[in-house]
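Case 160 in the screening queue. Each case pairs one protein sequence with one candidate compound; here the compound is zinc ion. For every case the pipeline is the same: read the inputs, emit a complex structure as tokens, and attach any notable structural observations.

Predict complex for case 160.
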Amino acid sequence: MNSKYILPDKNLTLTITEELLDKMYLSVKAHYPNEFGGLLIGFYNDDNKNLVITDILLPNVFTSTPVFFERQAEDLQKDLQDFYSSAPSKFYVGEWHSHPNGGTMPSSRDIKAMMYIQDDGNVAVEKPILGILSYNNKTENYKIQFHLIINNKIYTYEKN
Ligand SMILES: [Zn+2]
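Case 160 output:
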């Protein structure tokens, strides 16, 4: 079962399976009350208009608190390479992390981190996306939103 998101402003769409969303949710829940996250893996189709997120990678080395998450850049490089040879070829398409008992919008620190990744030039995609999963431990509800950050402006994909 696929979840679809749209970004009408940029004529972009995004697809992710419910199964993958559940996997993210479970890893977030397991790391509560700290933030947790990782990499988003996938590919673009439909003239680079549709992003299909197929996998996530969870870091082995990371620092996290209830309001902070940072993974080590070198970690997961080997795991990433294994995706290049798959058919279709999959690659790094963005980052994701949780906001325990918080909202789904990026913090100013999140925006800076994404700008830094874009400027780094080491990533295959021009505009990596940022997924933020808010998790409420009382209700155990979660919500995820995906964002594209261009020139300090946040564009948020809407659930279709
Ligand atoms: Zn954040």
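Case 160 observations:
- The mean pLDDT is 93.
- The chain is about 20% helix and 45% strand.
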